[in-house]
Amino acid sequence: MVATEDDPATGSANPPRTADGHHIVVDGRKWRATDPGIPDKLRQELVDELMAARRGVRAGESDARPRVNDAKHALGERGYAWWEEPAPDELDTRITATIHALLRKRDGKTICPSDVARVVGGPDEQWRSRMDDVRRVAAGLAADGTVVITQKGEPVDLATVRGPVRIAFGPSAS
């Protein structure tokens, strides 16, 4: 195990990690660590959504458990191991979960596909290689009405639009 370190952002102690850094150890149990490739601002948004969803579980909210699941997938704590190359369906699950978690956290605001790519894409500039995957998954979610793809505030077809777009919850969002 790696020694416990203080987190300068929160002032609290981080739990010890395994030697490979892939897991944290809490009360003798190993738990998958959050993907360290997620930029701090986006990681904090996802952690905030996870904590809100956990409070919802305690309050008996009907949508809370799926929200916890989405946040944990987005953070890399569930699903494929973030340090390995995912199968296409596993990557799609994490992209979908990330879209849902960020949209819930931003509560009525849109998200940029590049934010999703930055969460699932790995450290540094590797996220750019995930943009086509994010756009493909977002197009599928738009086709079933879960999300709406917009450009300058107007709904657009992701297959034909050029330039920057935003993602918002659609009419059939859960």
Walkthrough of the structure:
This protein is of the alpha+beta class and 174 residues long. It has two domains: 1-33, no CATH class; 34-169, Arc Repressor Mutant, subunit A, CATH 1.10.10.10. Helix content is 41%, strand content 11%. The chain has helices spanning 40-59, 64-74, 88-106, 113-120, 131-143; strands at 23-26, 29-32, 147-151, 154-155, 166-169. The strands form two sheets. A three-stranded antiparallel β-sheet has the order 4-3-5. β1 and β2 (29-32) form a beta hairpin. It is globular and about 50 Å long. The model is unreliable at 1-11 (pLDDT under 50).
Please tag this protein with its features:
single chain; 174 residues; alpha+beta; Arc Repressor Mutant, subunit A; three-stranded antiparallel beta sheet; two-stranded antiparallel sheet; 41% helix; 11% strand; globular
Structural class: alpha+beta
From the spread of the alpha carbons, the general shape counts as globular
| Rg from alpha-carbon coordinates | 17 Å
State the oligomer. Answer: single chain
Q: What's the rounded overall pLDDT mean?
A: 90
* CATH architecture title of the largest domain: Orthogonal Bundle
Poorly predicted regions:
1-11
Number of helical stretches of at least 4 residues: 5
